[in-house]
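User: structure tokens for this one?
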Amino acid sequence: LKGQQASPFVLRARRSMDKSGMPWHLRYLGQPEIGDKNRHALVRNCVDIATSDNLTDFLVEMGFRMDHEFVAKGHVFRKGIMKIMVYKIFRILMPGNTESIEPLSLSYLVELNVVAPAGQDVVSDDMRNFAEQLKPLVHLEKIDPKRLM
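Assistant:
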């Protein structure tokens, strides 16, 4: 859906494939803040909501359309308020069939994520310090979401 500024309104829906009956999670991610280029992390508004099983039907009725679908298999770790996800991304060969998948790459993706109140620039320093500890094995970098679209 497009808002009044004509920029797309993007929502992400996800759910656990390991346990049946787990709720869907709907996430709104705002546009990245344009601020200090020396900031070590991308900053944007986020709203995360647990929903019922009929989320996909509801979103279609609201006028949203699916852009892409994938399966992520891996592990989630926590260090304080940081969430570290290490996973492989799999392409779904037949839409809606999560049993028919193939890996996009042989590599793992490492994602470092923190949800914090606005103005907590110290958190980005904590993220950089954690990334420095992984440096021999992993190269963490900020990803410009506009570059991916």
